[in-house]
Amino acid sequence: MKKDDFYQYAVDGYRPVENMMKMVPADKLDWKPGESFMSLGQLIRHLADGIGTELEMLVRNTWPQQAEGQGMPSCSARDALSMLERDKATLRALLDAVTEEEFAEKVVSTPWGASGKLERMAFFFQEHFTNHKMQLFTYLKLLGLPVNTQTLYMG
Question: How far is CA 31 from CA 8, 38, 85, 120, in A?
């Protein structure tokens, strides 16, 4: 897949997440379906990193260090939407900075041991984003909000 095709594929996947983030009740950011789950606020904060922010860390090998005992950050839906919008620009800039050959052939790796060609890793990061999109959908469903298949896939 060419860089521009991947960009469009990724951005198309953002639309349903953006619309679901707009549905998040401000008074439910601390809600979670069970003790070992992320809260709704943590989940939307994690989704707000999108794909570009994570791929940028992958390509530049600039991973943040999380302090011992520090939990996952949380944020409001408004902040998450703003961050996700910035992530689109980050993704575009990152893809513009690599050649088609680098996108297809450059080998990159994560601190947790995953490695592969950039294009393949980009798809893994997109899959990760999609899995959390489904998690957000499920949270909203459990909270009784009006979500359905169209919400999940079309926004």
Answer: 33, 9, 24, 34
pLDDT in tens, 57-66: 999 988 887 6
Q: Which class in CATH covers the domain with range 3-22+38-61+73-153?
A: mainly alpha
Q: What are the structural domain ranges in the chain?
A: 3-22+38-61+73-153
Kindly report the pTM of this predicted structure.
0.92
Distance CA 122, CA 111 (A): 16
